[in-house]
């Protein structure tokens, strides 16, 4: 049986490998010139930048994925644990490193507030309990009805999951200091949410980065993409690059293939890893869409992003591999992203700086530094060259002030990637960098389904589906949908 996978992102490559392992003939059709989707790579003058994901979290999920095909991550790439896990510049001028090791984390939180370490231990114990429940009962399941969502242990554990309380309120019940509160909330931005609209269940992220650790795959996230590509190829998957899908062909209630500029590709089933909204609205006739335009307009979208890839001709002091610059009034920053009435380019943004060359000598030429600067933005904003330049000047000036360093004089390579680029390169709906935010009613059952509601052999994987945003979640999504396809269609 032949399956065509639309898109060679993490979701497409991982699902293709799992299907091929189950005996399917698999072809992957990719719009762009390289695999990886948002996890592509930009190279110039000896600098190599991961264009999208840069945090390697939840190593257990990668282990579980590769184990499904009898492999290990170590068969394809090497991991290093980062210490410090990350550095934080707080709005008041304080700079803090979060070390690798819980005892050191407890001591750090003791410096923030009375009994801070004790409070952190209780918080992380709660987060671990929910993480274990999630992995065993929640994340690897598909949800087709409310009965699937509220069943078994989920009902028994529902009260302890605090699903109706926001992360912000939950955190403020546990910590008093601004520093402690921000450290345990910052990662929600990587899930495309704000502390105000994200369920407190997601405090599991603190267990993920503090207890499980922040890791780096040697060679960057592109090394993981390379590993998935090699795995898929070894299982017989073919990948066609530079071949955008223009249409998903449907006859009756079944998908029969896809149409690209190269012609028609026939298939017994189609699995989409491209942007879900794009596939529904642009690749399918209205009669075959599960979710019309008004559905997507009503969703809470995860942020877009302003990204700068900077190659510097010298080393820079003061930055760690991962550095977070958090504005004093970060609540206003979340309003500018998630409140449609306030959406705007921020005057005082919080942002993230990734410097892989601190760990990886292949990221930059000798004696040089590779910087990836990311600022979350509201999706759908106006995006012009003038706005980009003004914003770049604002962000770089802020970073220079914090470091006490003239970075401009060292710039050898510069590329800006923002809303329109997400739309054009990834067909991202309204330029979102991540998909749908993790609000309560955009979680599990309430995320777009893996199986089309109108076409019996059309499936979806990736960050829009359950369990959601992030590379580990995408791998889990592929495990779910590959299992479902195998059960319904055989191999």
Automatic annotation (TrEMBL):
One GO term of the biological process aspect: carotenoid biosynthetic process
Domain Amine oxidase: 11-485
Keyword field: Carotenoid biosynthesis, Oxidoreductase
Pathway: Carotenoid biosynthesis
InterPro entries assigned to the protein according to its UniProt record, in alphabetical order: Amino_oxidase (IPR002937), Carotenoid/retinoid_OxRdtase (IPR014105), FAD/NAD-bd_sf (IPR036188)
Domain of life, per lineage: Archaea
Pfam families, alphabetized: Amino_oxidase
GO molecular function terms listed in the Swiss-Prot or TrEMBL record: oxidoreductase activity
PANTHER family, sorted: PHYTOENE DESATURASE
The protein's name: Phytoene desaturase
Record organism: Methanofollis formosanus
Gene this protein is translated from: crtI
